Q: What sequence folds into this?
């Protein structure tokens, strides 16, 4: 995979490339999640309806909502009659007002693996991971953070498969003491979730000075990238 292809693959905004007949030729990671909320034929219809009248690219500001996805714009492009691509621009979803997280510099991958390994001992659940490998060590309280992750995984106890995704929130940041910090998200999802767990998860996230949101069977934990 080339460097440019990796940018598309890990983009926060969904991208889908269709054939002229509406079949999916390729899509990035985020688009796979989007297709869990909307039929591909609807996305193809949006692409063809908003394409330029001649070869090239056209950007349109449009309000769309598919499950947890809130879209404010799209870019549609094609260079021949056989392929057409569409990129969806997500609205920022974070309303972040917690204090600056403190604690030790920790490896978030290690904590995720630890929680999954512990949970797997007494469970037949299949765990899938889609983790951006470039997240550095960040400041968190390991014990509190492990409690938070364990509570989230426990909420999906009735799911056959639990997926954990770790990714940058492109273009989003938060300020503490006048300094900007990038954000990344741990997103955990499954078919079945115990909604009674939501309030405790939100409380544990707040205890970690983090922000968690539940929507459409997905728990998202948004984390400032504080590395010093």
A:
């Amino acid at each position: 995979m080339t460097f440019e292809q990796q940018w598309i693959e890990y983009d926060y905004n969904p991208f889908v490339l269709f054939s002229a007949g509406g079949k999916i030729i390729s899509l990035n990671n985020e688009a796979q999640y989007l297709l869990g909320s909307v039929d591909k034929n609807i996305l193809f219809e949006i692409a063809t309806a908003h394409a330029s009248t001649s070869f090239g690219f056209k950007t349109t500001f449009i309000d769309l909502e598919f499950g947890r996805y809130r879209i404010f714009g799209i870019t549609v492009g094609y260079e021949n009659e056989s392929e057409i691509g569409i990129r969806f621009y997500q609205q920022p979803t974070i309303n972040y007002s917690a204090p600056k997280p403190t604690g030790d510099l920790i490896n978030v991958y290690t904590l995720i693996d630890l929680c999954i390994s512990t949970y797997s001992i007494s469970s037949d659940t299949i765990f899938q991971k889609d983790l951006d490998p470039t997240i550095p060590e960040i400041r968190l309280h390991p014990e509190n953070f492990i409690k938070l992750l364990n509570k989230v995984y426990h909420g999906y106890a009735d799911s056959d498969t639990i997926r954990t995704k770790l990714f940058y929130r492109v273009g989003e940041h938060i300020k503490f003491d006048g300094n900007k910090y990038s954000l990344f998200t741990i997103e955990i999802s499954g078919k079945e979730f115990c909604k009674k767990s939501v309030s405790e998860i939100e409380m544990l996230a707040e205890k970690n000075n983090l922000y968690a949101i539940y929507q459409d069977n997905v728990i998202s934990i948004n984390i400032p990238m504080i590395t010093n």
In short: The chain has a mean pLDDT of 88. The first helix runs from residue 3 to 9. DSSP finds six helices and twelve strands in the chain. The two ends are 32 Å apart (CA to CA).
